[in-house]
Amino acid sequence: MSHDHKRGTGRKPGRWSHSLANRHLSILVFLSLVGSGQAGAQSRRKVIVDEDAAGPGGSNLQAIMTLVQSPAVETLGICVVSGDQWRDEEIAHTLRLLEIVGRTDIPVLPGAVFPLVHTRQQALLGGQFYGKINYMGAWDARWWHEPFAVPPSAVPEGMPSAKPASEDAAHFIIRMVREYPHQVIIVAVGPMTDIALALRLDPDFAQLAQEIVFMGGSLDPVSSDPEWESDPRHEFNFWFDPEAAHIMLSAHWPKVIGVPVDVSIKTHFTRAMAEEIARHGTPLGRYLLKYYDPNIDYMWDELAAAACIDPSIIMSEKEYVMDVNIEHGPNYGDTLAWLERDKPDFGGAPVHVLMDVHNEKFDKLFVDLMSSSTPKPASTH
Fold first, then answer.
1. What's the pTM value of the predicted model, to 2 decimals?
2. Confidence band of 346 (pLDDT split at 50, 70, 90)
3. How far apart are CA 100 and CA 69, in angstroms?
4. Percent of the chain scoring above 70 in pLDDT
5. What integer is the mean pLDDT of 262-273?
């Protein structure tokens, strides 16, 4: 993650003329103003978020808003991929939220509707042979509907009037990293389908990014949740499109940061936090409280977004080489991980896996960002 350091030099003055001293003072004032204004805007981290933006409310949309709300971030675009819900339904949630907060200037890019190989039929058949799959996202029978249908009942916050961009997610990501080489952080917090497509379209894509931060994978979470109790290496983002996650993890990124289940389940978005945010009276605050759901309180994706903004919220990390099991059997989609001494020779970049979080600092950062007024669109880019 990038850090902006302000450096100063101390110099003992000699016998300056009055005019030279005034000129020096003017330069210092100018630099101070620029440093706090225009230069500060120019130094914002350029971020593309690739998200399975289920809604209304919830971790996915709250992660998007964590980045949009931050004055340290320039959100170049929001790419939407199927995962927790179908892509078109997720696009509706994203566009509507951007309307509510007044940020329809941020492009919303339609990503992949389906995984590269994995199908719902295959997943259902696997469940019959190898045991129950406790959560299936858009494929789950509890809320299943056809891929391109967006039932009005599924968008209770109201259908948006804004439209998504005509460009697709994979081409947009490639275009941005080529326009801003080594400056773009990819925050991939859904299934990795869009990222895999971009990697296959442009072999230089990974090396042109500054880094990728992903939410995915599971190592050894301490949890009695049925989703991991029987299979601790199972995690939805990797499982929904295992081949895409394999492609992402095999690429040569300058830096890779992973946020697995292990640390995500240490975070909780509470009703007290939602009420504190809503007390500030912003449209975003009212939205978050209205759609708060105590049954889905893990802050999966918000943590990945917040780690881009303030890495000091992370208390510990561990370096692994990671991959995903793409053999079609009982462990299809499970996380594979090795320490450096044990790693296979498949060429993936090492992953800085976040292991522990400073909850108090993270909660404060999140509440402060969500409570503040949404930054207005920049007049120039």
1. 0.88
2. confident
3. 13
4. 88
5. 97
Q: Which two tokens stand for residue 69?
A: 């709300």
- Spatial distance between the Cα atoms of 336 and 315, rounded to a whole number of angstroms: 23
Give dist(CA 22, CA 17) in Å, integer: 9
Check: CB of residue 212 under 8 Å from CB of residue 182.
Answer: no
Question: What 8-state DSSP symbol labels residue 254?
Answer: S
Q: Where are the beta strands (DSSP E) in the chain?
A: 45-51, 73-80, 108-110, 184-188, 211-215, 256-259, 314-324, 335-338, 351-357
Quote the CA–CA distance of 341 and 318 in Å, as a whole number: 13
Q: Roughly what angle, to the nearest 10 degrees, separates helices 271-278 and 359-371?
A: 30
User: For the packed helices 271-278 and 283-290, what is the interaxial angle rounded to 10 degrees?
Assistant: 150
What CA–CA distance (Å, rounded) separates 105 from 75? 10
Question: In degrees to the nearest 10, what's the CA dihedral of 119, 196, 236, 45?
Answer: -150
pLDDT for residue 30? 36
Alpha-carbon dihedral sign for residues 132, 138, 143, 147: negative
CATH superfamily of 46-371: Ribonucleoside hydrolase-like (3.90.245.10)
Q: Is it true that the peptide bond before 115 is cis, omega within 30 degrees of 0?
A: no
| Residue 205 reports pLDDT greater than 50 | yes
The CA R_g of the chain, rounded to the nearest whole Å, is 22
Q: Rounded to whole angstroms, how far apart are CA atoms 94 and 101?
A: 11
Which helix or strand (DSSP H or E) is residue 261 part of? helix 261-264
CA dist., res. 190 & res. 200, Å (int): 18
Going from N- to C-terminal start, the domains of the chain cover: 46-371
Pairing of strands 45-51, 73-80: parallel
